[in-house]
Design goal:
heterotrimer; A mainly alpha (297); B mainly alpha (294); C alpha+beta (409); A: 297 residues; mainly alpha; 2 domains; globular; B: MetI-like fold; two-stranded antiparallel sheet; 2 strands
Chain lengths: 297, 294, 409
């Protein structure tokens, strides 16, 4: 149908950076790469629904051979044959670790970021530059001394310990991102609030914090996924099996059942579910956080 | 009134000091000692750890290649991994801009970044499995008559196999940044080039790409840092094996400290890692300061 | 060099929007043709179709003897100057200019010679080693021109090239463009929103307008500037061309023996026979409401023109704009304003709505500045009734006009 517009769009008809490539080249290459990226996860997903016999007898790409089953999930989550804790406990541990380890660093970083953006104190820029420098420190360099401190304070193997670790390690990036966002809030807004009689606490809670919500949301998603997926900190600072999260659970599964692909796949897929949901639900924030944070830092 | 701002900063600065500043200093000190995790500074040994590392540790540096060792493998990662991530990121980021299913293609490539390295490692152990009923690649090789290849068991292949998994994970980041920068390029310069007589390929190569130089360097630096830091993929896929042929510097720190309980020696490796990263840290800080000045 | 021939050109976007319809126009070899019209009228789309940056949905486009519908931009042998100049930010001025020649594997000596020559013409020789971001707006504009000139193409395409310059620079570059065209005599298609630019630059001017369901074509009228000014074929062209704009008034014709009079409000003017000649059939449209158009420039104060009671309007000088040589006097007629689809479109382009006009008609007269005008005082103005225009209030066409499509062809 041809409709008539009073003001036709100037660049409608899709972006055309520079004319036409042969029509099949672009889709061909792109689809090939995309499939290559999808296939590994797809294989994992299908394998996780195959019985032990089916998974060793047929390749997962013979999708319909050997039937489907949910037994793997049942076994991974609840089977007493697996070393304690079961995967269900790992799942709960991951949640217990992740939620405070997401909220804490962002709360502390927001307060500090406000100071860096809007308060005046000596060496402000130098200290901020120091924070930026910490952004790139490889965590390997910190493990032994931090573990030593934790041992002294009896924090090793406790949830508060790992919360603190994630807070300490996540702070630098959070401060950096939030400070930059807060510094972009127009000066007029802050000053007019001051003239209206607001102190720093009011300005922070009533003006800066609400305006920074997009950045906080992006950061929260980031930190959440980061902590959820963390293996190294859990391995190093938790040490007690009954507090292990999913990632450590998978590693133990690999040690125990290195060739039971049906079980391994189910376990790995279980650990992926929550990040995947977060990603698909909040993709927009995710991408925005990535471009704003990574382009600069 | 003067002390008020410090009240805002105190929690953050204390945590940063405890978890980053102090440990870095302390680790440098520990690296001059021989000791365990429990007692890292048991015995002061001066530069012995470093001497051992650079002259006598075939797992860290080995002068008759192959199989390669941690330092060379890290160099391989820095080159190949960084190049691969940028190449695929550009490919998807730019090509997806020209098709209708842009969002779907990008979402699929983005996916690996939200799953854990642990899960990604399981995924790739599956892909690389020698069992032709499990590993897709070996199943395909079998079809054309090649016997199963032990991608993770062959010293000459294992690094490339793990780097492949790394590229699979990290392309998402490079794609996102480079696609955003490509979309921000002025459309008119592409049209001007087309009218000037450039083919589509020439437009990309001579007009788009040079304008994306900044973001490409940012991605490259980020990826070099990631390559040097990496632990998880190697730990779960091969634990540095077979032998020590897939060890890299970031992994070696973990392995020496926690597997070999050699806190002093591992700390020396950590310090080497820190020194390797120093130029990148310096570059990043300069970038950020330049951005601040604007 | 070549002529550009467009036959029944049509552009429909993927979403079904008709942007350009039934566009037929031949641009002669060496001609400077201006496409002018309000934003959204399709002028840029036509230009981009000539460039090959937009696909042609239907119709044929020839450059010289070649059918170029499916020819890529790079093979069309045209050069384009963009509104935002589109300079390559990573190249120096010299490389910007040489880029197209390098792609065509022009010998190095030849590139050097052409760049030097074009830089000389444009007086940018000192800037050749700078990057675009170190240039002022006017300098960037020159580089964009230079990039087109060195190519020695069959045609120049220019998309509002002066619109980003300030007023003074714009006048200067306009003169420059004219000089360059006189020197190179390359076929040029020039898109602009500014009718003054169109009238001063164009050998011929094509007036475009957004398509509507009733009128699936864009081209309203094409001709030399004086023709558009003196012989507009409809209200849209009459209202778009000329500054200040033509006065539009609802009026009635009355026959009185041999004479025809035009009546509006309390005014009665005797229509000159030459106006009737230019409007075949007008004598049959007496005693019905028509739209009368009269340009402010077709008037003079009676103290200068001499008394002529049959053609005089007594007006009140409510506002006067003194431009030195002439004065524009504004007066309000107690008549409802002319509002037709054509007028509404012109208003929209100026950011106004029919409501903003109120229920009176604004009337502007140009008189010599030798006349003393005092604000609020009355003034007798003699109208040159040889130069009246009459339009059909429904269709907007001039009475007795060649049909609009014929005019477009």
């Amino acid at each position: 149908m041809t409709t008539v517009a009073t003001s036709p769009p100037v660049t409608a008809g899709g972006p055309r950076k520079g004319g036409r490539v042969k029509r099949w080249v672009v889709p061909g290459v792109l689809i090939a790469v995309t499939i290559t990226w999808l296939v590994p996860t797809l294989g994992l997903f299908i394998t996780s629904f195959k019985s032990r016999a089916a998974s060793s007898q047929y390749g997962w790409w013979q999708v319909w051979q050997g039937g489907w089953t949910l037994d793997n999930y049942n076994e991974v989550l609840f089977s007493p044959s697996l070393p304690p804790p079961g995967f269900a406990d790992n799942f709960i541990n991951t949640i217990i670790i992740t939620i405070p380890a997401t909220i804490l660093p962002i709360a502390i970083a927001a307060v500090a970021a406000y100071a860096f953006a809007w308060l005046d104190f000596p060496f402000r820029n130098w200290i901020f530059l120091g924070v930026i420098a910490l952004l790139v420190v490889p965590l390997q360099v910190t493990w032994v001394p931090v573990l030593k401190i934790f041992n002294t304070l009896n924090l090793t193997g406790t949830f508060p310990g790992i919360w603190l670790a994630h807070t300490g390690y996540g702070l630098a990036f959070a401060i950096f991102l939030l400070r930059n966002f807060m510094a972009d809030i127009p000066n007029d807004l802050i000053e007019s609030a001051r003239i209206d009689g607001a102190g720093n606490v009011k300005i922070f809670t009533r003006i800066v914090l609400p305006l920074s919500l997009p950045a906080i949301a992006a950061l929260a998603i980031f930190q959440f996924v980061w902590v959820w997926n963390d293996l190294m900190n859990a391995l190093i600072f938790l040490q007690t099996p009954d507090k292990f999260p999913l990632t450590v659970g998978i590693r133990n599964l690999l040690g125990q059942y290195g060739n039971e692909w049906n079980l391994l796949s189910a376990g790995a897929f279980l650990s992926m579910i929550v990040p995947l949901i977060v990603f698909f639900a909040l993709q927009r924030y995710f991408v925005r956080g990535l471009t704003s944070g990574a382009v600069k830092g | 009134m003067r002390w008020r701002p410090w009240l805002w900063l105190a929690p953050a600065l204390i945590l940063l000091a405890v978890f980053l500043v102090w440990p870095v200093i302390r680790t440098i000190w520990i690296s001059f000692h021989s000791g365990s995790i429990i007692n890292p500074t048991r015995e002061f040994v001066g530069l012995e750890n470093y001497q051992e590392l650079f002259t006598n540790d075939p797992a860290f540096i080995k002068y008759d290649l192959p199989p390669w060792s941690a330092l060379f493998n890290s160099a391989l990662w820095v080159g190949l991994f960084t190049l691969g991530v940028i190449a695929f990121g550009l490919l998807v980021g730019v090509l997806a801009d020209k098709v209708k299913y842009e969002k779907t293609a990008k979402a699929i490539v983005f996916l690996p970044l939200v799953v854990s390295f642990t899960a990604a490692s399981v995924v790739f152990r599956l892909v690389y499995s020698t069992d032709p009923n499990i590993g897709l690649i070996n199943a395909m090789l079998g079809l054309i008559g090649f016997g199963p290849v032990a991608f993770l068991g062959e010293p000459n292949l294992v690094n490339f196999a793990i780097i492949g998994a790394g590229i699979w994970v990290w392309t998402a980041l490079s794609m996102t940044i480079l696609a955003a920068s490509y979309k921000a390029l002025p459309e008119e310069t592409h049209e001007a080039a087309a009218v000037d007589g450039a083919s589509e390929w020439q437009v990309f190569w001579r007009v788009s790409l040079p304008q994306m130089k900044g973001p490409i360097i940012v991605v490259a630096v980020t990826m070099i840092i990631n390559a040097l830091k990496a632990v998880d993929l190697v730990l779960i896929m091969t634990t540095g094996g077979p032998g020590f042929s897939s060890r890299i510097v970031g992994f070696t720190v973990y392995w020496e400290i926690f597997n070999n309980n050699a806190a002093g020696y591992g700390s020396a490796v950590a310090v080497v890692l820190l020194v390797m990263m120093a130029p990148l840290m310096w570059w990043q800080m300069r970038q950020i300061r330049a951005a601040e000045a604007r | 060099m070549a002529e550009i021939r467009m036959d029944d050109l049509t552009k429909i976007y993927d979403d079904g929007t008709l942007a350009v319809g039934e566009f037929t126009l031949t641009i002669e070899d060496g001609e400077f043709l201006v496409l002018v019209g309000p934003s959204g009228c399709g002028k840029s789309t036509v230009l981009r179709m000539i460039a090959g940056l937009e696909d042609i949905t239907r119709g044929e486009m020839h450059i010289g003897d070649n059918l170029v519908n499916d020819v890529t931009p790079k093979d069309r042998d045209i050069a384009m100057v963009f509104q935002n100049y589109a300079l390559y930010p990573h190249m120096t001025v010299r490389d910007n200019m040489a880029f197209g020649l390098k792609l065509r594997k022009t010998p190095k000596d030849e590139i050097r010679r052409r760049v030097a020559e074009a830089a000389g013409i444009l007086e940018i020789t000192d800037l050749l080693d700078r990057k675009p971001k170190a240039l002022s707006g006017g300098q960037r504009q020159r580089v964009a021109m230079g990039r087109a000139i060195v190519r020695e193409p069959a045609a120049f395409l220019m998309d509002e090239p002066l619109s980003n310059l300030d007023a003074k620079l714009r006048v200067q570059m306009r003169a420059e463009l004219e000089r360059i065209h006189n020197r190179l005599e390359t076929t040029t298609v020039y898109v602009t929103h500014d009718q003054v630019e169109a009238m001063t630059l164009g050998d011929r001017v094509a007036v475009l307008r957004a398509v509507s369901p009733a009128r699936p074509y864009n081209l309203q009228q094409v001709g030399p500037p004086h023709e558009l000014f003196n012989d507009p074929q409809n209200l849209f062209v009459a209202g778009f061309i000329g500054s200040p704009a033509m006065n539009m008034i609802y009026a009635r014709l009355e026959a009185e023996g041999e004479d025809v009079w035009v009546v509006f409000g309390d005014y009665r003017l005797k229509v000159d026979p030459r106006t009737l000649e230019r409007h075949p059939g007008l004598e049959n449209r007496t005693n019905e409401e028509l739209v009368m158009g009269v340009r402010p420039t077709s008037m003079e104060a009676s103290v200068i023109a001499g008394p002529d009671p049959d053609r005089t309007m007594r007006i009140t000088a409510e506002v006067d704009e003194n431009l030195g040589a002439e004065v524009f006097v504004h007066h309000t007629l107690n008549l409802r304003p002319v509002i037709t689809p054509d007028v509404e479109e012109l208003l929209a382009d100026a950011g106004q709505t029919p409501e903003s006009l109120g229920d009176t008609t604004e009337f502007v007269a140009r008189i010599s500045s030798d006349v003393d005008v005092t604000k609020g005082e009355q003034l007798d103005v003699v109208i040159d009734t040889r130069k009246l225009f009459f339009f059909d209030p429904k269709s907007g066409s001039r009475i007795g006009a060649r049909s609009a499509t014929a005019a477009a062809g």
